[in-house]
Write a structure and sequence with these properties.
631 residues, globular
């Protein structure tokens, strides 16, 4: 879009949606730093997409400057990028960069590690570390061995699983390493020594990468200047989950610069304190960046009755919480929020499965309109529920499950994984217009073909059609097995070209995510092929068609379902909860707010007591929710 075609700020209208609420317009047009506090269903991702389009189409974000969007989850980053691409001309959308915090900081370390002080410089390459119990115990034993006598008892009492969140992530790296003056400092020095020097290659957690990237900006004015000159607008989604290390990175990168920073989130959904999230992220940003707070008041997801109950829980966390206004149409006139009580797990599961099957038939809903939420250990509930749901003709799937080193959720939203799936779909049947659009657009993009280049477009489509003819021949001659599925995926990747994929996608550069996605995708397709008899059925199983998702509350963030059933509202699942605990209340609030039309909370005597979670039940009682004994 050249200058003459720009839209004036006064003439600009939202793209792809009817409009915005009044408060959203204030935040959208802001050129300063803004703190947008928005509850569940407020359309936070859509707001950021609309703000990006506004800034690009009006020319407020002037070329060659870019917009940097930072999310916490891979699927959220991909979703935001996709929305901008759908609402904005391609030549403008290419100036919108969407990363996760971890992908962004990792890419900086990968590219500029040589600019780090030698004492903090990792090897090339290095391994990404996900420390397990054995690694943490080895770290503790090693630290005790080199510690002063008076520090050893303190180190021995260390909660190993809290170290990274409470100590490592909360400690800036100095430019020059110093001798430890306390047990805490010795632990930090020893962790970094194990990570950087003792291991060959170096082994770095994402907390380490966050900290190294922040140090990089402090010690290299040229890199900092390049970052600031590239991005004139910065978005941060789900800001309530920001860790100390991530906030310090954001502060070092953009505080005091000319960049306009917009953060969006909801302090009522602050459920990542256990992972090191700041409890004061919004307040700290408003103090450091001088950001103006703008609350959004609409809820486009949940029905009026659900919003009413949500407000009861919200006021338990914040007595001054402003009521939100439901913009959704209610489909149910009673029993919108329910509590079920049962005496045993089998009876509870059988009742739930039968109830969902009947509700699905009566309301003409699909399996993926429902979700089974748990607080933790989804795999345990999966084993327990799977056979009982199967007896009712229903299939459940644990969407938190990892295939290789990526989760099923990550595969379902990854750009290239979606392209591979589209090509496999086209290999099974000729008419699949959506799959054809996905595949042909990807091939043109990977080939560097401009949409206005008719000759290049025809050439790319001819190459795609030739490959698909070969793929159809292969799939017709080879029924789905683990071996044939692996071979089919390899054929698609060979055609697309791994080098072209990495070169064309910023999020794959300077890291091994493209390879991890390929490995996870191959494993998942192979597993589905081994469980089905036809290729269409294999791909349906891959996507989770006709399956009810089972996932933890943490994994459900950002998702929505017609009906949610929360299983295990008891002391055993909520073992760390205490009455009034902010994080526990936030987790409960997040679960409730995933529902569009109905939420069911389930207690089973056989699972445990409910003394620790009595305050959660009291909130539901206060909201007028009636408890029903189901078995």
């Amino acid at each position: 879009m050249d200058f003459a075609r720009r839209v004036t700020a006064d003439d600009w209208t939202p793209r792809g949606i009817p409009g915005l609420e009044p408060a959203a317009w204030t935040a959208l047009r802001s050129t300063g730093n803004t703190s947008v506090v928005a509850g569940p269903g407020a359309g936070k991702t859509e707001f950021l997409a609309q703000r990006a389009v506004y800034l690009l189409e009006t020319g407020i974000c002037r070329p060659p400057h870019r917009i940097l969007a930072i999310s916490f989850k891979t699927d959220a980053a991909a979703n935001l990028a996709k929305r901008v691409q759908e609402r904005c001309p391609p030549e403008l959308a290419k100036r919108f960069s969407s990363f996760t915090f971890d992908a962004l900081t990792k890419s900086l370390v990968d590219r500029f590690a040589n600019a780090l002080p030698s004492v903090w410089r990792p090897t090339r390459p290095y391994d990404v570390l996900f420390p397990d119990k054995d690694y943490l115990r080895e770290f503790q034993r090693g630290a005790i061995a080199v510690a002063r006598e008076e520090w050893r008892h303190e180190i021995g009492r260390l909660d190993l699983f809290r170290f990274e969140a409470d100590v490592l992530g909360n400690s800036k790296l100095p430019l020059v390493a110093a001798k430890p003056a306390s047990a805490r400092e010795l632990l930090l020095n020893y962790w970094w020594a194990m990570s950087l020097k003792h291991a060959q290659p170096s082994k770095l957690t994402f907390s380490c990468l966050n900290r190294l990237a922040e140090l990089l900006l402090r010690c290299s004015p040229n890199i900092l200047a390049a970052l600031r000159s590239t991005y004139s607008f910065v978005f941060v989604d789900e800001f309530q989950d920001t860790t100390f290390a991530q906030y310090d990175f954001l502060k070092s990168a953009f505080m005091g610069s000319s960049a306009s920073v917009t953060v969006v989130g909801d302090h009522k959904q602050r459920i990542m304190l256990w992972a090191g999230a700041r409890s004061d992220a919004f307040e700290q940003l408003e103090a450091d960046f001088g950001a103006q707070r703008v609350p959004l008041l609409f809820n486009f997801r949940s029905s009026p009755e659900l919003v009413r109950v949500q407000h009861v829980v919200a006021t338990a966390m914040d007595a001054g919480a402003i009521p939100t206004q439901s913009q959704a149409v209610a489909e149910l006139d009673k029993d919108v929020v329910q509590v079920w009580s049962s005496s045993n797990r089998q009876g509870e599961a059988e009742y739930l499965a039968t109830w969902i099957a009947m509700d699905m038939a009566a309301r003409k809903k699909q399996p993926r309109d429902y979700a089974l939420l748990v607080r933790q250990k989804a795999e345990v509930f999966e084993r327990e529920l799977l056979p009982l749901f199967a007896a009712a003709g229903l299939v459940i799937r644990n969407e938190s499950k990892f295939v290789g080193k990526v989760s099923i959720q990550d595969l379902l939203v990854d750009d290239i994984a979606l392209v591979v799936l589209a090509m496999l779909r086209l290999g099974t049947r000729v008419k699949a217009p959506t799959a054809w659009q996905t595949a042909s657009s990807a091939v043109e993009f990977l080939s560097g073909v401009d949409s206005a280049d008719a000759l290049g477009t025809r050439s790319a489509e001819a190459a795609l059609e030739k490959f698909l003819a070969e793929l159809r021949t292969f799939l017709s001659a080879n029924p789905p097995t683990q071996a044939s599925a692996t071979a089919a995926v390899d054929k698609v990747y060979t055609f697309l070209g791994m080098e072209r994929i990495v070169r064309s996608h910023v999020r794959y550069q300077r890291n091994d995510m493209a390879q991890l996605i390929r490995e996870g995708l191959t494993i998942h397709v192979a597993e589905c092929a081994g469980a089905t008899g036809t290729w269409p059925a294999c791909l349906d199983l891959y996507e989770g068609a006709d399956q009810i998702p089972l996932l933890t509350v943490h994994k459900s963030k950002g998702l929505e379902y017609d009906t949610i059933a929360f299983i295990g509202l008891d002391d055993k699942s909520w073992w760390s909860h205490t009455p009034g605990n902010p994080e526990g209340l936030a987790t409960f609030f997040v679960a409730l707010s995933r529902a569009k039309q109905r939420a069911v909370f389930m207690f089973c005597n056989e699972r445990g007591n409910r003394q620790k979670v009595a305050d959660l039940y009291q909130l539901l009682t206060y909201a007028g929710v009636v408890e029903t004994v189901v078995c």
